[in-house]
Design brief:
Elements lengths: L3 E4 L2 E4 L4 H7 L3 E6 L2 E7 L5 E7 L7 E9 L5 E3 L4 H13 L9
Antiparallel strand pairs: 1-2, 3-4, 4-5, 5-6, 6-7
Helix pairs in contact: 1-2
Length: 104
């Protein structure tokens, strides 16, 4: 539900979308489809961080955060997420209609 206020011919939103909140912290959406969403941002340390929200058929969906380039050993480095970033990612997954399946 989107709530707006009209003021002198302008429309102002009261609530920001998850994508807008992610963009505020530097995560720009690269791609989104029924299988997931991808975000990227340039860090102050000189590398590109990628965050992927991945839908799995098993219901155990993933949030992956990693460095875009490979290191000297040929691997991508894992990059941690803050609690706020992880919370926004979970909220985005719920908005995409993905159901959570409990681990057993």
């Amino acid at each position: 539900m989107l709530i707006a206020i009209v003021e002198k011919g302008k429309t102002m939103k009261l609530f920001k979308t998850v994508d807008e909140k992610l963009a505020e912290i530097g995560l720009v959406k690269v791609k989104e489809d029924e299988y997931g969403a991808s975000y990227e941002r340039e860090t102050r340390f000189g590398y590109t961080q990628c965050v992927d929200l991945v839908c799995k058929a098993s219901g155990r969906h993933l949030i992956q955060s990693y460095e875009k380039g490979v290191n000297q050993d040929g691997f991508n480095n894992c990059v941690g997420l803050s609690m706020y970033e992880a919370r926004l990612c979970r909220k985005k997954m719920k908005r995409m209609g993905w159901k959570e399946k409990k681990c057993q």
